[in-house]
Specification:
It contains 16 helices and no strands. It is mainly alpha-helical. The protein folds into 2 domains: about 200 residues, no CATH class; about 210 residues, no CATH class. Helix 2 runs parallel beside helix 4. The model has no long low-confidence stretch (mean pLDDT about 90).
Length: about 450
């Protein structure tokens, strides 16, 4: 019972944090949508550009949590501070270099994506103010990961509350021109996003001075070294590659979907299904990060049995919540779809997606949470290989075969997606059960 309570204490603030992120994203999309379809297209493209920066951030944050958690469990505070300090320096340097490169290559990048005219100009307007904010955003993300590593998940929740308030207030005033502010549209939206990231970083730095990691801001910890930089990145890079694999496979999946008899209706139904399904992702992501911190701390304390127990307990609790949401999707698929679209054809296809994907939600939960546990142990290469197998070796060929080869159309694509989600969960369970992660070196 005590272990279950420990998992719950760490996980519930993370679940709420991701709920706030999802709510913020939905409200932001509503505000942008009021500016017209060109603005939605511009922000959609801008989001894909900013994903490059976020992927680089993930390459650091996964390593940060694993190292800080391991050193916290081993009662080595000096090393925990050094890992956090090195991660802060890496995030600032890599973020600045990535943002500069994106600005220099933005014109060619937009052309390569086939974006021209008004959407391209509005995308530049948005990114001109949003991209610089990703530098403090990267550092804030690392500090969030470090707090999770010491088992403090309430601080990221508090910071997220403040950041969301700044973002939404900024959208309302600067983007839409309320309360006497100029109507700056997407430039204002970029300012609002950057402002929320700056506020997050300031709050983290203030709170950090009263935390067990306060020494990470000492110059000897912040000065980058090759040894520590590689320790952080060696763990995190495979996790970033895994995210890239998922993104590129989704592009391939969408390309196949567009060739089905349902065509653009099916393509339009996909984001509707993903948006609704993101509600189930929240407990999965929250418990995934909780498992990462708890497993890392237990391994640092050299308590292998407790590390395994905490990983499974996190999985069981998280999967229970994800499964409940799967039942809701199955029973209320059409009402969910109608919230976003009024087109009967699109609603029918999206509802079909939700009913079919509901069957695989439990395995989605196991896949997400146990992968988080493996990452907390520093075992990140094997889950990345498993992701590549599930999404590229099986999902794309199976989708092609079922949707186009035997003519099942979008329903065949949804079945292939659901089946490979189950496969991904099975592989994560197998990797965690073999206990090789207990010997991972960080």
């Amino acid at each position: 019972m005590e272990a279950h309570l420990t998992v719950w204490r760490i996980a519930w603030p993370l679940v709420l944090t991701f709920a706030l992120m999802t709510t913020n994203s939905i409200l932001d999309r509503v505000f942008v949508g009021s500016l017209g379809p060109h603005a939605l297209a511009a922000v959609g493209v801008g989001g894909q550009v900013m994903f490059v920066v976020m992927a680089m951030s993930m390459a650091i944050t996964v390593g940060t949590t694993a190292l800080v958690a391991r050193f916290t469990g081993a009662e080595e505070p000096e090393n925990a501070e050094r890992a956090a300090g090195q991660s802060i320096a890496l995030a600032a340097v890599i973020g600045a270099v990535t943002v500069a490169g994106l600005f220099l290559g933005l014109g060619a990048l937009l052309k390569g994506m086939g974006v021209y005219g008004r959407p391209a100009q509005e995308c530049r307007d948005f990114l001109a103010f949003a991209l610089p904010g990703t530098i403090p955003g990267n550092v804030g993300a690392v500090l969030s990961a470090a707090f999770r590593g010491i088992g403090d998940t309430r601080t990221p929740l508090k910071v997220m509350l403040a950041a969301n308030a700044v973002h939404i207030l900024g959208d309302w005033t600067l983007m839409l021109g309320h309360w006497g502010a100029p109507r700056l549209e997407l430039r204002g939206g970029g300012m609002a996003m950057s402002s929320s990231m700056v506020v997050s970083l300031i709050l983290y730095l203030v709170i950090l001075r009263r935390s067990p990691l306060k020494g990470c801001l000492r110059m000897r910890h912040l000065k980058p070294t090759l040894h520590w930089g590689w320790r952080v990145m060696r763990i995190g890079i495979p996790a970033a590659v895994s995210a890239l694999v998922r993104t590129t496979s989704m592009l391939g999946f969408t390309s196949i979907l567009a060739r089905t008899p349902q065509g653009m209706n099916a393509v339009a139904a996909l984001p509707i299904g993903l948006t609704a399904e993101s509600i189930a992702f929240m407990p999965g992501l929250g418990y995934s990060m909780a498992a990462s911190a708890l497993v890392g701390q237990a391994l640092g304390a050299k308590n292998l049995k407790n590390a395994e127990r905490l990983g499974w307990f996190a999985a069981y609790q998280g999967v229970a919540l994800v499964t409940i949401m799967g039942v809701v999707f199955f029973l209320a698929a059409e009402p969910f779809a109608r919230i976003i679209s009024k087109d009967p054809a699109v609603v029918a296809i999206a509802a079909d997606y939700l009913r079919i994907m509901a069957i695989s939600e439990p395995m989605l939960g196991f896949g997400m949470i146990l992968t988080g546990a493996l990452q907390g142990a520093g075992d990140t290469v094997r889950p990345t290989v498993a992701t590549a197998i599930s999404f590229w070796v099986f999902r794309i060929p199976l989708t092609w075969a079922m949707a186009l080869g035997i003519g099942m159309g979008s329903r065949g694509a949804w079945i292939a997606m659901s089946a490979t989600t189950v496969l991904s969960g099975i592989l994560a369970i197998a990797l965690f059960r073999d206990r090789k992660w207990q010997k991972a070196r960080v």
